[in-house]
Specification:
The complex is a heterodimer. Chain A is mainly β. Chain A is 0% helix and 57% strand. Chain A contains no helices and 11 strands. Chain A is globular and about 45 Å long. By secondary structure, chain B is mainly β. Chain B is 0% helix and 49% strand. Chain B is built from no helices and 11 strands. In chain B, strands 2, 4, 5, 6, 9, 10 and 11 form a 7-stranded mixed β-sheet that branches. In chain B, strands 1-3-8-7 form a 4-stranded antiparallel β-sheet, with no helix packed on it. Chain B is globular and about 40 Å long. The termini of chain B are far apart. Classes of the chains: A mainly beta, B mainly beta. Chains A and B meet through β4, β5, β9 and β10 of A and β4, β5, β9 and β10 of B.
């Protein structure tokens, strides 16, 4: 079935790197996404990666995709207190139009 | 400002009552979605619509219904609310370009007593 799994919590110190991991099930997903949710708000797209790419870098963000293992990761370099939020991984289920989300990883950044 | 508008922002409802959560978008996106967010469970897809006139079931459709009479509106109805439907509900629309990212509303917090 369709499933996206994430660990629920990550705590880092300000200035360190954060790595948030995700596994998914649909090997034919075209795009995989990372969304960020700040307290009391909706989700906003952070970045995405096309399935034929292994890596995508966007300023402090690096997305790594391992299609063989169906594993996606988000690395945030030089993590700041403003990065504290819930991060959701999502996959696009082919031929359905559905996006399935993981449980969300709460990132806590300590000063 | 273009985007997704949800209403109400928050509602307390007695069990057994009927409730409709409204969602309107002004981006002319074809696809729209309803998710519920619960602690530890993330976002779960309730229903979706790939285009006006069509709808589909998501992961947790029971107890909910939707309609898509036009492109802009996608209401979610709870015919007879139960306490397990206490949640935060998010409506989203999907960009028609290849990347297909979702744009979310601010959410509707529903409490069923």
């Amino acid at each position: 079935g369709e499933d996206v799994e994430q660990s629920l919590f990550l705590s880092v110190r300000e200035g360190d790197s954060s790595v948030i991991n995700c596994t998914y099930t649909d090997s034919s997903s075209t795009y995989l996404y990372w969304y960020k949710q700040e307290p009391g708000a909706g989700l906003q797209l952070l970045t995405y990666i096309f399935s034929n790419m292994d890596m995508k870098q966007d300023q402090r963000l690096t997305v790594l995709l391992n299609k063989k293992d169906k594993h996606l990761s988000l690395r945030i370099a030089d993590t700041q207190t403003g990065d504290s939020a819930i991060y959701f991984c999502a996959e696009s289920i082919s031929n359905t139009g559905k996006l399935i989300f993981g449980q969300g990883t709460t990132l806590q950044v300590k000063p | 400002i273009a985007g997704i508008t949800q209403a109400p922002t928050s509602q307390i409802l007695a069990a057994g009552r009927r409730m409709t959560l409204r969602c309107t978008q002004d981006m002319r996106h074809n696809a729209m979605y309803w998710y519920r967010q619960d602690l530890g469970l993330g976002l779960r897809l309730i229903h979706y619509s790939n285009t006006a006139g069509t709808t589909g079931k998501g992961e947790v459709p029971d107890g909910y219904s939707v309609s898509r009479a036009n492109t802009d509106d996608f209401p979610l109805t709870l015919a007879s609310a139960v306490p397990s439907q206490t949640s935060v509900y998010f409506c989203a629309s999907r960009a028609d370009r290849n990347t297909g990212e979702l744009f979310f509303g601010e959410g509707s917090r529903l409490t069923v007593l």
